[in-house]
Amino acid sequence: MDLQNLNPSSLKSRFTARFLRALTEINAPKTISSSSPREIFQRYRRIKVAADKSMAYSVRSRRIWSRATLWRLRTRSRSRRLVSFGRRASVKTRTTASHGKENKEHHGAVLGVQAEELRELVPGGEAMDLCNLLDETAHYIKCLTTQGFCVYMGGLLCEGCC
Amino acid sequence: MEKDEALTAPRQPAWNTEVLNCATEKVGNHFRNPNWDNSMDQSDPFESALSSMVSSPAASNVPVSGENVIMRELIGKLGNICNSGDASCYTTPLNSPPSFDFSMVNLLNRSTLTPFSADPGFAERAARFSCFGSGGNSGGFNDPLMDSFNLSGNQSINVNGSQSNKNSGSDKKNSGVLRSSSPENAESGVSKEESSVSQQIQSQNDSGTRKRKSTPRGKAKEIPSPAAVDAKVASENDESNSKRSRRDGAPAGNGNAKASNDGNEKQSKENSKPPKDYIHVRARRGQATDSHSLAERVRREKISERMKFLQDLVPGCNKVTGKAVMLDEIINYVQSLQSQVEFLSMKLATVNPRMDVNMEALLSKEMFESRGPLPHGVYSIDSSPAFPYGYQPQQGLPPLNNGIPNTTETPFSMKTQGFQLPSIDRFTDAHPQVGSMWEDDLQSIVQMGFAQNQPQSYQGSIPTGQVKMEL
């Protein structure tokens, strides 16, 4: 619906700028990469948080999911470990659960199961009705692709220069 | 009755204009009351509807299909005009619950169902009496009409509305037709026209139109419903689907009993479900017309509109039909995108980053470059082949494993424990064409980056290697 509002180049540039800044902050203290999995994992998490945060900041508060993401990141920073582990587990269960439920047929306009899953996937989706949820999902998908693209390009260039 | 037939049969157009003028003067003034602000827009259709009603080409036993269609359309419009007074938020000016009509409809339906079709005169008289009774006048058109408007608006909506809703499979149409017909009968005393009109409409409907199966046969309710259906058919070409749906909803009345409406809604929903695909949404005829079903229909249309948009966004969903499957695809896609980002960030974490200013400049250049070759379609490119993780269901993992250099093995092994694998299984290259575009862009970017940093042995091998990895 708001495809016009989302200018790919501007979103990408905003996201990229922020993400790069975050990356430099993350990588600055450690010029020598320690290949221990734990440190790599920590760095990975920080990078992911940076990616999510920069994406959410690029969208500001225009979208419900961006606001939810920012809020979640802020609260998560207080209780980081538990939340991240819990999220992972829930993602795993969601993945398996969705496969099982795909065979179900739903009549009528209200598709409760998939809507529930979608709500869990899209940040901040719990409080939205289906109509807004689909809107947010569309915008979220666009931003996710942008995010992935930028992170990927960043990874490529980083690999290239090291 | 007889005079109407005589009048109507030969000179339809002239008659129409005459009645039009007469009706306009009488009714139009009334409709321009402050209470009927919405009717300003409706004066013309009302006039036309009136003319059509009065003329009643249906009086002739050999109905001209075109005329009947027009007449039915006018009838429907008339019904809509009559309803304009109680416009809800979802109703266009043409829509409004019929205030006075309900009383007529109620009485009409109650009095005789089967006999109505059999003996039009009786029903007409009953309608007229009801009309007059409500109006308290036996006079001309205006008084009973106005009285019925005033009265029914306040009192009888709920009762009559429920009745009318029950009676017709297509509530709005039935009520609309009856509404339109009853005032006509009252004013012109052409009760026979109404029945004949409805009868002819019914005959026409039975043959050609997409009549609702739930509409009961052999009952009086059928008559208004076919008429309404025809009216709707006639008006279909003129109005948009959304407007039509709203119009359908409006006449049923905003304050009608929900129970009856729900029953009708179920009927209408059942009938409308088969033809309704979330991609092609057309206004269903014979829908319940209360505000709830109307709002729900609007909501459903919005949802289907968004589903269509999402379908364009998610690759490979063009063949998918149905909301459930579509939602499943969307869910899978979002999950894969999220895991994709996680994987990429993990990959980034393993790379020893030497972030210098050049990198930022490089990336800014990359953004600048990507604007060109990848215009607004960048998202589709990103999604499908962009990374090696283009989203497509059911394809293998091997390209990723082979292409990624050793530095990623560690995090990758870590990831194997987690949820990444099942989602990565879905990563594939979807569109080779887009992939080629991506490849060119990527090559240019990477080469640019390498050229800026330092010419190294990577320059030749890694870019191509990585490009190969993608494909």
TrEMBL record, chain B:
Gene3D superfamilies: Helix-loop-helix DNA-binding domain
Single Gene Ontology MF annotation: DNA-binding transcription factor activity
Domain BHLH: 287-337
Comp. bias intervals (Basic and acidic residues): 263-277
Keyword Transcription regulation part of the UniProt annotation: yes
Source species, domain of life: Eukaryota
Key words, A-Z: DNA-binding, Nucleus, Transcription, Transcription regulation
CDD domains for the chain: bHLH_AtBPE_like
Region annotation Disordered: where it falls in the sequence: 152-277
PROSITE patterns (alphabetical): BHLH
Pfam families reported for this sequence: HLH
Residue ranges, compositional bias (Low complexity): 158-168
Subcellular location: Nucleus
Any single GO CC term annotated in Swiss-Prot or TrEMBL for this entry: nucleus
Family matches, as InterPro entries: bHLH_dom, bHLH_ZIP_TF, HLH_DNA-bd_sf
Protein name per Swiss-Prot or TrEMBL: Transcription factor bHLH77
Originating organism: Hibiscus syriacus (Rose of Sharon)
